[in-house]
From TrEMBL:
Cofactor(s), by name: heme
Superkingdom, natural source: Eukaryota
Family matches, as PROSITE patterns: CYTOCHROME_P450
Family label: Belongs to the cytochrome P450 family.
Residues the entry annotates as binding heme: C488
Keyword Flavoprotein tagged: no
Name of the featured protein: Cytochrome P450
Keyword Endoplasmic reticulum: no
Length: 548
């Protein structure tokens, strides 16, 4: 008798504990009423599906099936948000940008230093304030001829490469070298690569493998994160230096190479400026590059002893690494994508060539003339709309609110229980993944043909729904360059670069697909490979010189 009642008591106790646990964990998810895909793994959640090399299909499925705001699962079953509703994006990137902070641990750990991609708060605002004027239209106008000069070298290098007739060449490799030289000449006032022949460039190779190494996907990553948190910086550095991992050592080599080169560039500029040595300054970019301007400012500020508003040496060095990285991988792959699309669509290529030749834009024309070419502009816009270079790079588009907040929606969504949801309460610390691509290709905003590449789209008035969605991107209703204070500071620079390179190349060469299959992959940046198995960035196209 006694045994029975204690057994019952035990059962009741155990039962209540179970019910309580289940309750707790089911109520623990603040988003249980939001639609969302199942999670295939407790450990990794949906991360693999979201960020794998061939994740485009799954991400399109996620966006289409679960709508503009859904729940996904992060590591260890954590509830994350997947967002592409324009109004929610507006809150995150503009209205409440001070509470929605990006997690920059990864960028920080990659030892980029305190540059724009890494800094936060007041320091970020200061840097942004100092850097914005140097990316002005006036600056771009003055730098256009530097872009042309460099691109003509690229043209001559290509001509030399295919002088024996049409040939299949790795266009991505050339675009990478050109992009590095364009950042070097245009932003840093420094020449990395003469571009005249097909030579190996160690520095370019180092920079190029930065994102591909994907340190944050390595097993070493959590250890390094922990190290950087617990240990004084010099110890953390030491640990990284002796860490028995090829990836980590490669990353250390890359960041060291970049840092060393950056320091050299700055020292050179400073010395020239202090001596008032105009001739050195004029050797490259006529002293109009961003770094000359910044160094000049900081030398002046030093003299005026107003230390507070200037960038420290460390910050300047970090900006250089940041510019090189941000400027090179994205634009080289974007230009390659554009040339691929033109090879795939010969009629568009022909039409573009006609516009360019008629305006003589294959030769040097002014910034304003170049921007007045409507078809060139539409081709660039449409490509950047559909093929965002950084579609959902986890490190760039994840943010978390520092306090509890609310995300309002442009269009209500239907919850799991059938009710309409117009806003979602988001607890502090929730990870939100912003799907920039899905916002750019939302059919109810852009029309039924939103997934198709149609440059003509931008030649006629856009659907009313585009205006109404009030998309918070800095560029052309698109999220391609992000919005708010985290938007890409160089987006006009990138556009100019794209246009100059494209106009010179299309005027001088014909591009055709080769019989190798090109596959586009996701890493830090979307990049092409031959076939699905290979992970080596390359893009062979058949190139021939147009002889007039
Ligand atoms: C950022 O991410 C790292 C590693 O993924 C994590 O350890 C860290 O707690 C995060 N920091 C913030 C502020 O969210
Ligand atoms: C980056 O690292 C520095 C020191 O190395 C630290 O002060 C800063 O808080 C870190 N930033 C982020 C976003 O982790
Ligand atoms: C293209 O993107 C990939 C992946 O981020 C990167 O490794 C590569 O350096 C980029 N550019 C070139 C020219 O390969
Ligand atoms: C487009 O965005 C709206 C919200 O603005 C959303 O309700 C809808 O599901 C999206 N449609 C598609 C096809 O992505």
């Amino acid at each position: 008798m006694r045994l029975d009642s204690s057994l019952i008591l035990a059962c009741v106790l155990l039962g209540s504990v179970l019910v309580w646990t289940v309750r707790k964990f089911s109520t623990a998810s603040p988003f249980r009423n939001l639609p969302g895909p199942p999670s295939p793994s407790f450990l990794k959640g949906n991360i693999q599906q979201l960020s794998g090399r061939h994740s485009n299909e799954w991400v399109a499925h996620l966006a289409e099936t679960y709508g503009a705001l859904s729940k996904i699962t992060g590591p260890f079953g954590r509830p994350w948000l997947h967002v592409y509703d324009p109004k929610a994006l507006y809150s995150i990137t503009i209205k409440d940008q001070d509470i929605w902070l990006k997690n920059n641990t990864v960028a920080n750990l990659s030892l980029l230093g305190p540059g724009l991609l890494v800094t936060a708060g007041a320091q970020h605002r200061k840097q942004r304030k100092m850097l914005t004027p140097v990316f002005s239209i006036a600056y771009l106008r003055s730098i256009t001829s530097v872009f042309y000069e460099t691109t003509f070298k690229l043209r001559d290098g290509l001509i030399a490469d295919i002088q024996d007739g049409p040939k299949e060449i790795d266009i991505l490799g050339w675009m990478g070298r050109a992009a590095l030289e364009l950042v070097g000449q245009g932003a840093l006032g420094y020449s990395f690569d003469p571009l005249v022949e097909d030579v190996h460039n160690d520095f370019a190779e180092a920079v190029k493998s930065f994102f591909a190494i994907a340190l944050w996907r390595s097993i070493a990553f959590p250890v390094l994160v922990l190290g950087s948190k617990l240990l004084p910086p010099q110890w953390a550095d030491w640990i990284a230096d002796v860490f028995p991992s090829k990836r980590v050592q490669r990353m250390r080599y890359i960041t060291r190479t970049m840092k060393k080169r950056s320091e050299e560039i700055i020292a050179e500029k400073r010395a020239a400026l202090q001596e008032g040595d105009r001739s050195t300054l004029q050797q490259v970019a006529q002293g109009k590059d961003i770094m000359s301007i910044l160094c000049n400012e900081s030398v002046k500020a030093n003299m005026a002893a107003s230390q507070k508003e200037q960038l420290s040496n460390e910050e300047l060095t970090a900006q250089i690494s940041t510019f090189i990285l941000a400027g090179m991988d994205t634009t080289s792959n974007a230009t390659a994508r554009l040339l691929y699309l033109l090879a795939e669509n010969p009629s568009v290529q022909k039409r573009l060539r006609e516009e360019i030749l008629e305006a003589q834009a294959g030769e040097e024309i002014s910034y304003d003339q170049l921007n007045e070419l409507p078809f060139l502009d539409s081709v660039c816009r449409e490509t950047l709309r559909l093929y965002v270079s950084v579609p959902r790079r986890i490190l760039n588009i994840i943010c978390r609110p520092t306090v509890d907040t609310v995300l309002p929606l442009h269009e209500p969504i239907r919850g799991e229980d059938g009710s309409l949801i117009t806003e979602v309460a988001v607890p502090k610390g929730t990870v939100a993944v912003l799907n920039l691509w899905a916002c750019n290709t939302n059919k109810s905003i852009w029309g039924e043909d939103a997934y198709e590449w149609k440059p003509d789209r931008f030649l006629s008035p856009l659907p009313r729904t585009v205006e109404e969605a009030r998309i918070p991107g800095v560029y052309s209703n698109l999220m391609s360059f992000h919005g708010g204070s985290r938007s890409c500071i160089g987006f006009k620079y990138a556009q100019l670069e794209l246009k100059v390179v494209l106009s010179v190349l299309v005027a001088n060469f014909n591009f055709e697909l080769s019989d190798k299959e090109i596959v586009w992959n996701n890493a830090g940046v979307a990049y092409p490979t031959v076939g699905k198995e290979s992970s080596k960035p390359e893009m062979p196209l058949k190139v021939s010189v147009i002889r007039s």
